[in-house]
Design a protein that fits this description.
The protein has 87 residues and is mostly helical. Helices cover 43% and strands 7% of the residues. It is built from four helices and two strands, in the order H-H-H-E-E-H. It has a two-stranded antiparallel sheet. The protein starts with a helix and ends with a helix.
């Protein structure tokens, strides 16, 4: 693909070429209207973290993150590690 065709493709994908020139709220609206982001939008419920006072927003979709190890898998890993050390 030549450079001119690539530049044209990128211009079509970009909503604005320079964020400094974008109207106020354009980036926020862009993210809010993005269907791929809508699935992970936080719910209306929030709670204050007692450790540091930060507000925590909850999302049911993010509660099922596959990269977070479950307690069982961590326990199984730890047991196998101890067996390797002969403990």
């Amino acid at each position: 693909m030549n450079t001119q065709a690539l530049d044209e493709t990128l211009r079509q994908l970009l909503e604005t070429e320079n964020l400094d020139n974008a109207p106020p709220g354009a980036l926020t609206r862009s993210v809010a209207n993005d269907a791929s982001v809508a699935t992970f939008r936080p719910e209306a419920s929030a709670q204050i973290d007692p450790r540091n006072g930060e507000r925590i927003l909850y999302s049911k979709a993010r509660a099922r993150r596959p990269h977070d190890p479950s307690r069982k898998s961590h326990h199984t890993w730890y047991q196998s590690y101890l067996k390797q050390l002969n403990c």
